[in-house]
Amino acid sequence: MIRKTKIDLAIIGSGPAGLAAAVEAKRLGLKDLVVFDRDEKPGGILRQCIHAGFGLEKFQEELTGPEYAHRYLKMAETVGVDFSLNTTVLEMDKDRVLTVVSEKAGLRQVECGSIILAMGCRERPRGAIGIPGTRPAGIFTAGHAQRLINIEGYMPGRAVVVLGSGDIGLIMARRLTLEGAQVKAVAEVLPYPSGLVRNVVQCLHDFNIPLLLSHTVAEVHGDRRVEAVTLVRVDERWNPVQGTEQRIECDTLLLSVGLIPENELSKAAGVAMDLRTGGACVSDFFETTLPGVFSCGNVLHVNDVVDNVSSEGETAAHGAYLRLKGRMPDRTSMVPIEPDETIGQVVPHHVSAQNDATLHIRVKRPMKKMTLRVGDGFEKKLPFARPSEMIWVTVPKEVFRSAGGPVVVRCEGR
Amino acid sequence: MKEAKNLICITCPKGCEAKVWAEEGEVKLRGKICKKGKSYLEQEFREPKRTLTTTVISRDSRIKRFPVRTSRPIPKKDLFRAMEVLSSVEVRPPVRASDVIVRDLLHTGVDVIACDDLVD
């Protein structure tokens, strides 16, 4: 017989989303809540993100990841948040019963009034992108290399090629250079960088690291350890262009080729998923299709800025509060939000139309002089839009109320 | 006289480009740049500065590396020398976030401070 306890609110994950959700829930007056995390310390990925650029919105200051986490941990301490660390959530069922395990307390079940999913994301591995060549040591995902250097104190290699120009890849190119490695190139399959402009400038230009756009890895060489990689230019359809191969001697290949929301628990419980975001389908309170189960931060959709992740945690906490108090608007009256083919992704997927709603949008391709339209009654003009920068736009509730059906999100521009 | 440079503004995500050069001791720039961007680009041309974030050795048994940063930006040209100084620095508990770990790094007047607590 498994021991069973009961709590009002469980938060899974103690990264920026989970911490903000916990602090906000406590402030709203929810007393009986526990934050579960499998790591020995709270803070999630922030602990290894030692670079600056966090907190510009939440604290009007430029903080490093550990500093940002530290601020939230102090707040959590002040409001008295309970953490259950070194604890893995094995399973969630549709009736909001969690099965958790830890070395200290063994196996137990927790019946929850509400659950906030804040598990973050994982890195896309080599296997998912099919790089040809041998399988030697020396191939790391960028985030793994980040953990090795910044927390565990190991250098993954001395001569490095980075595949993918996502922010973590760019930041690791700089980090490795500062620690004495030689970063020979960053290759990006797209014709434009996937990371933020400031990272391209401060991580690559600052150290004269070449960024090869429309390039990918054609082959990995080496038997026991990486000895070289062959890079190749690609056409618009990502097909290699014959004759453009160049061999680069290196001992390490870092992969920064995208992040995937970590939704094993959500899927097993039957939460409806959005194939575009890889996260749950949610309302404007970030409630999933399972009543009482909420999703926020990178497990919902991969964000660019941590401040937004924290804000999402707060929204989810409000939702959980309304659900626990029996004040959540009825699901059947919600208005669906539908992106057209110009939009990469949009969250939330349906809105209550009781309040103005903030839509989180990524466009499909870079655009200048962009006009974003939501339904018939709302448009917003932006000088530029890029897939790498999520657009937050607050749409008045009247737009949803007058729709009489699904509200389409679309954009046009040059 | 420093030669002209093509710089990208990073004060906002727009990433505007400008040509920046010096003329009779004054920094000139060509390109559609806002007021905030102008002052960034002028500084970037005169003396680029960066906040250095890195780790030092932790003598706490549970973690091996401890995160630190410069309290203010330091000249970009000093980054590698700063890394060298910091490569032999060790911390022991107790440390509080914002504690000074290295005072007046390389005579820049800038301190290196702790980014986290290190407790026993």
Architecture overview:
The complex is a heterodimer of chains A (414) and B (120). By secondary structure, chain A is α/β, with parallel strands linked by helices. Chain A has eight helices and 27 strands. In chain A, helix 1 links the parallel strand 1 and strand 2. The longest helix of chain A is centred in the last third of the chain and has 19 residues. Chain A is globular. The N and C termini of chain A lie far apart (63 Å). The mean pLDDT of chain A is 95. Chain B is an alpha+beta fold. Chain B contains two helices and ten strands, in the order E-E-E-H-E-E-E-E-H-E-E-E. The longest helix of chain B is centred in the middle third of the chain and has 12 residues. The interface between A and B is medium-sized, with 31 and 27 residues.
Characteristic key phrases:
heterodimer; A: 414 residues; alpha/beta; FAD/NAD(P)-binding domain; 3 domains; seven-stranded mixed β-sheet; five-stranded parallel β-sheet; 27 strands; globular; B: 120 residues; alpha+beta; CPE0013-like fold; five-stranded mixed β-sheet; three-stranded antiparallel β-sheet; 2 helices; 33% strand; elongated
How many structural domains does the protein architecture of chain A include?
A: 3
- Which consecutive residue ranges of chain B, at least 5 long each, have pLDDT under 50? none
Total beta strands of chain B: 10
Q: Rg of chain B to the nearest angstrom?
A: 18 Å
Whole-number mean pLDDT of chain A: 95
Assign the CATH superfamily of the largest domain in chain A: FAD/NAD(P)-binding domain
User: What is the average of the pLDDT values of chain B?
Assistant: 92
Rounded to the nearest angstrom, the radius of gyration of chain A is 22 Å
CATH class of the largest domain in chain B, please? Alpha Beta
Helix share of residues of chain B?
A: 10-25%
CATH topology descriptor of the largest domain in chain A: FAD/NAD(P)-binding domain
Give the neighbour order of strands across the main sheet of chain B.
Answer: 8-5-6-10-9
Range of strand content of chain B? 25-35%
What is the oligomer described by this structure?
heterodimer
Helical percentage of chain A = 10-25%
Unreliable stretches of chain A (pLDDT < 50, length at least 5) are none
- In the CATH hierarchy, the architecture of the largest domain in chain B is Roll
Task: Please identify which CATH superfamily of the largest domain in chain B we are dealing with.
Answer: CPE0013-like
Structural class of chain B: alpha+beta
From the N-terminal CA to the C-terminal CA of chain B, the straight-line distance is 54 Å
